[in-house]
Amino acid sequence: MADKKQYDSVLEMMKDIQPNSELNQELGELIDSRKLMTRLMSLRALAGLSQADVSRKMECTQSRISKLENGTDDDIKLGDMKAYAEAVRHELIVGFKPRGLSAADQVKGHFCMINQQLIELVELAAAQHDDEVTEEIASFLNSFTGNMFLMMQRLSQGLPPLEDGTSCYQFEVVENQIAGEEG
What's the CA gap between 13 and 32, in Å, rounded? Predict the structure, then answer.
């Protein structure tokens, strides 16, 4: 018996069955127009909540939740998104980024935000004057550092070698030079 081909998405399967079809383009556009709605439904499912549960928390009807979940991303109002996020035990965070920002600059921006959060953790430990809190935060920082290092190692292994066969990636720590900080 031949192995059945596995697909990561319905769109990938459709492209394999009917390459270059107009239906694939329409399906792709539909999927793109519902990314936020799909994420909201995933959060609801992960929280183990039904549409009726969410409707009670949002103080509306279950049919309104169904209509919201079956709409497109452009249909939802910010207030509804915030209430839905709270109903599924999440916080809504909205961000803006300049158009045309390179992937590297986006990563630098995220790093700066992570750096700020880590500073807040350290400041929390300093303000608490509690050894248990300090030890927990230190443990987290050690774990975070190790995980970041492992992630960078794995990513660097995906880089193609140079023409002479050598790797161009070298892990180096530069003291007092964190993106977004004055040195």
Answer: 16
